[in-house]
Amino acid sequence: MTVIHPDQFLGLAGVGEAEADAILVPLPFERTVSYGTGTWRAPRAILDASCQIEFFDEETGVDFEERPRLHTLPALLDDADVESYLQLVRERVAGLRGKFVLGLGGEHSVTYGLVMGLAASPRELTIVHIDAHADLIDALDGRRWSHGTVMRRLWEAGCQLIQVGIRSLSREEYALIARKERITTVFAHEMQRRWRALLARLRQLRGPLYLSVDVDGLDPAVIPHTGTPQPNGLSWGQAMDVVRAVTEAPRAHLIGADVVELVASPHPPGCDLVAARLVMKILAFWWRGRRHRSGARLAKE
Asked: How far apart are CA 96 and CA 118, in angstroms?
């Protein structure tokens, strides 16, 4: 009989932090959400739901009972303001460089701390950003540090952004995107026309990558439980297309990812299991991509 370890993703015993291939970081932080609340409960809900997922992924052939070796950290709790919490996240994950780190939000502001902690040089990093919202406004509700300003702050730090599924933004954000300065945006209404070109672009990326998935980027038919759902989002298949392309890019390497803005269901399973499955698929595709690149290097040698 398999022993379930509820504080570890998939309920697996896992390994210690030092031995792990991938580290999961629960970030139950919610200070700036604009409408629906409850994102602070999502990391626990995702971990609970993950215990209902099989260890084997039929698409990638990855068996989590074997590899990758996972370790889930204790939830990073703090009553600090946004900037102080993001600094705490940054300091915690900076010591994890070299591991694959996957953050479980929490509101989207946590992405800033994760990225800035993991990226040796933000100016060399490309962030692939699935979202309904551009998150590029300079201040939201008078706050410069917010779930709605997170990509603006990362862009200002020098990151390149590739945004997918955007369908809610201000005129200010639209004007910034139109400048095409380190920002490529595929709006939701353009996805059918631009989809093949987008996937080709993702596979051609070079250098360090980071994947940030706000679950409201998916259509509400897939995940309705989020603070500000918007129609016309990505299907599950389209989300998997993006994950596949990012993890298969032969000249790039994914250093980290996050899944944020889930509002945990008060009556599980709700969407909790879907979000847990999304986390599992990101890990599976990342591991398969890493193995393929390692095999290609050995073949050349």
From this structure: 7
